[in-house]
Queue: 2 jobs
Job 1
Amino acid sequence: MSLTDVLAMLVTDHTLRTVSLGSGLVGVVSGSLGCYAYLRKQGMMGAIVAHSSLFGITVAFLLGSLIGGRVAPIQFALPGALIGGVLSMALVSLIVHSTSIKVDTAMGIALALLFGGGVFLLRIIQSLALPGHRGLRDFLFGQAATMTTADLATIVGFSVIGLTVVILMWKEFKLHTFDPGFAASIGYPMHRLDQLLLATIVLGVVVGLRTVGVILMVSLLVCPAAAARQWTRRLGSMMVLAALFGMLSGVVGAVVSAVVRNLPTGPVISLVATALVLVSLVAAPRRGLVAGALRRAANRRRFGVLPPDPGMHDRAAGEGEP
Amino acid sequence: MSGDAAIRIRDLTVAYHEAPVLWDIDLDVPSGTIMGIVGPNGSGKSTLIKSIMGIVEPAGGEILVFGKPFSAQRKRVGYVPQRTSVDWDFPTTVLDVVLMGTYGSLGWFRRPGRDQINAALHAIERVGMSDYVDRQISELSGGQQQRTFLARALVQQAEIYLMDEPFQGVDARTERAIVEILREMRRLGRTLVIVHHDLQTVSHYFDLVTLLNIRVIATGPVGDVFHDENLRKTYGGGQEFSLRR
């Protein structure tokens, strides 16, 4: 199929339109909310939340099947994912506060327990052949092609909530992330802001689980943000660009996996997102590797020596003292 | 002295995991003075400042700011955190950081407008950073970062300022500029409490000094309490300290 065929299908084909709209929106939300995961150095937290949500998804599905009723069990998946994600955060903080285990190990333990539990329950559900269990498999590597109008409505709902919170709390989230000590001094409730920010990031993870899958979801959270940071100097423009990068990854992933048979969406989205990071790292002005090499070459010509690379501080976290 | 004390601390004790960080602190900071807080690493200097602002929860004791609890006086207190406590690679500009000084008076959800931007530009001018208004903060030198933080504090228009090592890692020119601004603030009746580590400059910069090492070793006018014996008590007996170069 040629590119023009695909573009024509985007306009005429109702399913493909729904699928790209949904995946694009997922990219917008995860990409922009992911900026906070990036800036707060909580990218791995996103991976833990995503993996752990599989436990919530499968438990919710089992409960849904047990209750029966008219609602398909798969409809319980997203609320379950939210609970599973929050549970993993709670577990990490419980381990850190009540034992001597440090946070990175605690995250590993939470992931091991909840993702392991999730995969285990998934196998049980599959062997029981509960009605609708095929839909659950999409949550592993993501499948945009089977997206329905109801799924799209859920994504729109999550997006509106997530983006509204970020816009309303714009200056509060920004100050709390940049300088928590100063934020506390002017009376910001640290603990509640922490929780709200974390909840917002969890929302950015959960919204894309069905499209990207629990295993690769973190890529749509951190890659657009990491790529956008290379090109921008302000939080606002970083978020807008991350949203665009996320949308691009989402739409390309959805279309490619819809056109190619048996190709899950998650890996395609991840590859597009990481390609955007790679290009940004190399080509971005000021912070890019090419710009850095040019700067060093210019310095060599001017001074005949090799002064320390001023861009190095830019890339390294922590204090920069050019 | 308690009548015009800007800050009055009684029996303050702070503990982390049951180990005391501050023990039984009594301290009065008279209004309109510059007080330096000195002591070795881990002596609780930053913790003292943070507990005044309620960022650190004390195990006991009382802290009054102009006679009332801090929570009732929040807008009268400005804060300059340690420069190294934040990630300067955050995507933002000098103007934006200085504007954060207006957030306290803005309240929830409201964004800074014309008035706030003008106030921020004025503060940036006072610290001599007008050429760097739109500069990305990751491109600033240590001294410029410190000036930016100072400008943010000026925008708060507070009466008391708590500053955590404002001279740390800054160039000599910036240090002189900051001292000049601090003296001007005192002329305007502000009260300044400054965590400091360079003992050589204490008598030049401060009216009062508090020597701290978990407990208050001594507090009072620099001429009265800042001598070798108190320094030995603060920094440990084994070391020899002399203020005479």
Note: Chain A touches chain B through 33 residues (CB under 8 Å).
Job 2
Amino acid sequence: MNFIYTVSNADWGHLLALAPLVVTTALTMLIDIFLPAKARSALVAVALAGVAGSGAGVYMLYQSSGNVLAFNGMITTDHLALFGSVIILVTTFLSLLIAPGYIERQGVAQQGEYYTLVQLAALGMLLLTSAASLMTIFLGIELLSLPLYILCAFSPGQTKAYESGMKYFMLSAFASGFLLYGMALTYGATGTTQLAGIQNFLANHQFTLTSGFGPYFIMGMALLIIGLSFKVSAIPFHAWTPDVYEGAPTPITAMMASGTKTAAFVVFIRLFTETFGSVTAEWQGIIWALAIITTIGGNILAATQTNVKRMLAYSGVAHAGYMLIGVAVANSLGTAGVLTYLAVYALMNTGAFGVLSALEQQIDTNVGLDDLRGLASRSPLLAAAMAIFLFALAGIPGAAGFIGKYTVFYAAAVSGHIELTIIGVLASAAGFFYYLRVIWMMYFVPPAGSSAESESLHAEIISAGGSAAAAKVSIATAAAVALPVGATIALFIAAVGVIGFGIAPAEIIQLARNAAGLP
Amino acid sequence: MNFPILSALIFLPAAGGLAGTLFPRSAARMWALGVSAIELILAVYAGFQFTASGAVQFTEAQPWIPGLGLNYTLGADGVSVFLVILTALLTFTAISVSAEVSQNSDKPRLFYFLMLFLATGIQGVFLAQNAFLFYVFWEVMLVPAYLLVGTFGGPRRTYAAIKFVLYTAVGSLLMLAGVIGLNAAVSGGTGMSFAQLAGHVPANAQLILFLAFAAAFAVKSPLFPFHSWAPDAYTEAPAPVTVMLAGAMSKTGVYGFLRFGAAIFPQAAKQAAPYIAVLAVIGILYSAVQALTQSDMKRLLAYSSISHMNVIILGIFALNTFGLEGSVLQMLNHGVTTGALFIIAGYIESRYATRSLRRFGGMARQTPVLAVVFCIAALSSLGLPGLNSFSGEFLTLLGAFQANAVLGALATLVIIPAAWYMLQFFQGVMEGPESDIIAQPNGTAAARAKSADISFAALLPMLLLIALMLYIGLAPAFLPDRIGPTLTQFTALSGQFHASGLRIIQIMGRQSAL
């Protein structure tokens, strides 16, 4: 087999979305050397400019027409890739806005490294969404993972942070191993690493479980599912999620939670719904089961948490379950549902983590349920923002999360998987409990030490909600929360987006449908 | 020319409430009162513009989510137009008696915003003309109701709010499954509009879809045995919130039963009707007996309200002329009467800082005017002829009797406990020897102020409702002209509907007036 590698000038144009970030990443490192330590927080502007530039690149690619494949079928800039890229860029943008106040509070001295790594991780995610070959997929996964290993352990002197980084590294390395093995087997079975080639091969060749290339291919698919399930934190490959999310700096958690998830789900769709679309029967059952376990398990696990960050981590698992429902139905409607879900999830989830990072600037430890008590009296706007994000995550209409749920569940029902709709809907009921518990802490419970009544009420809530750890009351939680400018802007954007897309979702749904190849 | 009056009715409260959060705290109440007054004027105006025919009027239609084939369609028919007026009226009265709640809280602006936001959700449910939009507004009600009970309620507010939200959430998530199932079951392009759904839901899917919807309606109404959140929420919530919950929000449940049961899933409703009727009868009697044994006046009213709501459900699932007409009338009457009673109870509670019936007695000597108002409201509740509830309840029970004599007879028994607990409540508080808290030692200014009768300002919202009780009781003819044709349309499918029962009311009304 001869392989001719040619690069045309037109190919470079397909890197429009990546190029600005590459430039600003290099610039960040360069400028960092010359800046005095005090001024390094200005580097965030460079990173933001890079993200904005990439956004402009995505827009230009969206406007251009013609061949979407480039570099010998390694990279694609189809609407699916661009839709995923936009989500990742928005998440990165918000995460960067939240970051300055947070990392200063955490005493991070190496701000240059921080912003460099964030941009590199974003680049990996972007590459992953544009990947049209197994090689580029692996490249993207590694490029996003390596910076994140470091970023997870970035808070100096915190054991939890080291645990987070180490755990993510160890388990993620395993998952990458599975993924690489799966790719090797798939390549062995089909003779090509290009997704289009694999799709073509599968359409023209019959196989069974025991004959021909069948065994290698099936095993390869199973290993690919394991590797990707790890990245989207589907049960039973989710165990790393709460510990890593808890220990990582909160802006990084926000970025991982929706950025990595978006990139991994785009690959999921590209590999399974599209490339393996002609052999749906071989893999649909596994994803179907994963979706059910993840939806139910994630919600149950989230309901038992008293640490808000861990609760959001498990709720992220539950949301991955809802999205897997969209993958499990294995058609374009499901894809459109997953993409819509990813878009709204990025806003509401990043918003919720943004509120947490603002709170963490006030207290030293991770935010427990108890630290939110009386937030509505102390910081009404912050509490209102958090309430909006939580109602959205719970799936109340009027906020964007509902639109995501509806499109996914609707896809399942129309595709004849009404059981997935029912399981998803019932599992959301558990979601109401744990999201609204946070709201009740913020709104129903007076701030610490505000009145004598609060103590008895508090006891009642502990008995009702089962939060024994909530017994500690810190003085800091009686004061208003100071909000840095960047975080304020980020929360405002996220809240307006959540409400806006909740009320007028037509555009985003249409874009998601186009990305999925629907009219 | 084409002013979107229904959109205005829906979004004016929420937009006004949101704007109100920008004002200083002291202005919050007057602003909210103004917004709700405009809402009421707008609703009454729509009521006068509404022509007496079965047609859906003031329709608005906009594409909303073309990708999913969903539209934003609104419209008012003879049932919803009155429920909209009722909601606007109760919002206005509830806000006008909210002074104390907002003064005692550090979040008055939040309170008024949530009250108005709740009104938006309720109006939306009544005016939506497709199942998706109906569901959206249905869930929108949940958020403010949860926050209102939990933030501004009594000592057990957290418990009440959580119980409320879990019951309601499970119900409405089942409805979400129903909406999605309905969307998948009917062929595309309908946008799930009510007009196109009626008669087009496949028979084999009707029952399961109806049950999914019914779960939500049963919780909200509340139908026995899904009612147990209601006594807690109604009792713990401050009086104005209870007025909104029991007076207006509960109607969305029975409206849903009527809308989806009678019109969209007629076969399923017919199949399920006997079972629901049995539950309703149990609910009627059980709640009435519960009301007899309560020592907390708001809890008593809560159970009384549940009992009457079950009468309405029984009327709907009689699925005949009398039952349906009576239940629609009762929806309005129940809102007015329950609203008035909860306002009175709230006033008494704030005056004496207790709701325990044992501690009251002989109040009428100090507050003769309040006693008269209370007496009329109580008589209205127990269904005295000449007041509003009589004709509605009479027709409802007549319909139930026609559908099933045994159930009808059993349900009619409720008259006994209903009169008993209501008179016991009234007499216990107003008549007899003066109790300790009423006969306070003279001297302090506060005590003297207490012994004064109700002020005119506090009386005004009650009088508004009392006037309506008398008006509907004596001259109810304007109702049948508009409700009748709509119901004929609703139930045209079952082919057994003749707008005749309402004629009886017209005649009865004329005779009472004479």
Note: Strands of chain A lie at 69-70, 75-76.
